[in-house]
């Protein structure tokens, strides 16, 4: 009916199909009532409809008009398939255990993520649900990184000042390393799987801003990181890590740290400023 221009109740039809799909066949219990009693007839009806429709259009149209009608019909079918198979099932696909979005992200399944992206962006150009879940995943991982450092600092409260200072430096480097590795991973996923999508790029940036700014010692840790590397004249490492220092609000704080520390000369300041 819909193919002939009539309005149908898609949700009602979907509910009926789901019901038949949930009922096992009496004879072959490995299959559903839908598969045994309905599917083949629906496919047959579809084939017959398009056979008749093609004959009808060929009688009424020249070659160009016929091809235009074919394009229109295929586009309509494509849109129906996108809506029913992707748009209405985004949440289910994302949350599938051991195969959904989080599994793909954790295991850097670039091809699978790219396929998911291409299908999702066709039905939701803003990628709202996908971005919400990416944000959730990154901030969850950020909480783990932050809590690990917090726990280590709590355990080492009993150390003397000198030992504790050295440990804080170690923890600062560990925290920066972990944040950087996570950011590097998602930069790769953004580029290779999500085709550099600006909406997703902003979501990733927002998530890392939250991760960094949620840690009350983040400024201290990055200050230690910059200080130690500048003392060692390790400019290469600072340049490599400049990506994580670009995080929105945070870059201003880094510049403040540099300006407030007399050990940073003008050349060193310019180098950091240029790369954040």
UniProtKB/TrEMBL annotation:
Pfam families: Cullin. GO terms for molecular function: ubiquitin protein ligase binding. Residues 1-237 form the Cullin N-terminal domain. InterPro entries: Cullin (IPR045093), Cullin_N (IPR001373), Cullin_repeat-like_dom_sf (IPR016159). It comes from the Eukaryota. One of its GO terms (biological process) is ubiquitin-dependent protein catabolic process. Belongs to the cullin family. This is Cullin N-terminal domain-containing protein.
């Amino acid at each position: 009916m819909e193919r002939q221009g009539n309005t149908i109740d898609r949700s009602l039809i979907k509910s009926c199909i789901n019901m038949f799909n949930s009922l096992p066949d009496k004879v072959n219990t490995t299959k559903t009532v839908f598969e045994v009693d309905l599917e083949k007839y629906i496919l047959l009806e579809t084939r017959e409809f398009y056979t008749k429709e093609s004959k009808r259009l060929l009688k009424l149209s020249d070659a160009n008009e016929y091809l235009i009608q074919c394009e229109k019909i295929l586009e309509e079918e494509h849109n129906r398939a996108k809506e029913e198979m992707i748009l209405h099932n985004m949440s289910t696909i994302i949350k599938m255990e051991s195969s959904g979005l989080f599994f793909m992200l954790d295991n850097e399944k670039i091809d699978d993520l790219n396929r998911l992206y291409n299908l999702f962006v066709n039905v939701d150009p803003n990628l709202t649900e996908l971005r919400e879940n990416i944000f959730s995943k990154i901030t969850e991982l950020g909480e783990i990184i932050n809590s690990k450092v917090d726990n280590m600092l709590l355990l080492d409260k009993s150390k003397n000042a000198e030992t504790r200072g050295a440990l804080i430096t170690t923890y600062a480097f560990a925290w920066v390393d972990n944040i950087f590795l996570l950011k590097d991973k998602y930069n790769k996923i953004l580029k290779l799987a999500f085709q550099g999508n600006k909406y997703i790029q902003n979501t990733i940036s927002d998530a890392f801003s939250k991760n960094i700014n949620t840690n009350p010692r983040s400024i201290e840790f990055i200050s230690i990181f910059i200080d130690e590397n500048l003392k060692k004249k390790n400019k290469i490492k600072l340049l490599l890590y400049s990506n994580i220092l670009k995080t929105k609000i945070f870059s201003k704080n880094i510049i403040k740290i540099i300006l407030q520390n007399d050990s940073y000369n003008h050349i060193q300041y310019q180098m950091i400023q240029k790369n954040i």
